[in-house]
Design brief:
alpha+beta; 9 strands; about 200 residues; 3-stranded antiparallel beta sheet; globular; single chain; 6-stranded antiparallel beta sheet; 4 helices
């Protein structure tokens, strides 16, 4: 009798866990991009005239980064219209840091689902990403060749998180944070999955 109760409890927990793992689907793959971090400038006063934010010329990139004003919370003028094949000078959404990012290596089209969660260790909100099969292959290849390097999760042309790769990731999953509250993580998921 006790064994049956324990087995029923285990089955109930497994059903509950299985039901909690379903994330939201990304509807517009162009809103979300994954780009390598090539350089970073702290937030600060913009110096110089606004420059061309997508260029392969290092002098143009540097001038654009120094001239870019990044007040936290301001929407990006490109708003997801950046060319994923070109480098991008952009802002970090919450803190206002400025970044030079390389061409995109994954997009929202490579993501199967995203879900907001709570990091039990830190109490911060996080976003869990599950890649599609083809996205998981690209992700494993990219992480395998970029151990020790940083990449940025970019939403609507703005950096929402930067992550350092410590090992090749072959399970098709990733998690990112940016000291988000749980409400901010849920809002990010809504923005990522919006059509």
């Amino acid at each position: 009798m006790t064994f049956v109760r324990i087995l029923a409890a285990v089955v109930a927990v497994l059903v509950l866990v299985a039901g909690c793992g379903s994330g939201a689907e990304v509807k517009d793959g162009a809103r979300l991009r994954f780009r390598p971090v090539l350089g970073e400038l702290p937030s600060g006063v913009a110096v110089g005239a606004p420059g061309l934010r997508q260029s392969t010329d290092p002098a143009t990139q540097d001038a654009a980064a120094r001239a870019l004003a990044c007040p936290p919370g301001r929407p990006d003028a490109l708003d997801g219209q950046d060319d994923p094949a070109l480098p991008l000078v952009t802002c970090e959404r919450l803190q206002g840091n400025r970044y030079l990012l390389g061409p995109g290596f994954l997009s929202g089209a490579d993501v199967g689902s995203v879900e907001a969660a709570l990091d039990g260790r830190t109490g911060h909100g996080v976003v869990d990403v599950a890649f599609t099969d083809s996205g998981a292959e690209k992700w494993a290849d990219w992480t395998g060749h970029h151990i020790g390097k940083k990449f940025a999760v970019v939403l609507k042309s703005q950096v929402i998180s930067t992550v350092t790769i410590y090992a090749v990731i072959t399970d098709g999953l990733m998690q990112f944070t940016g000291n988000f509250t749980q409400a901010q993580a849920r809002q990010l998921v809504r923005e990522i999955t919006a059509g």
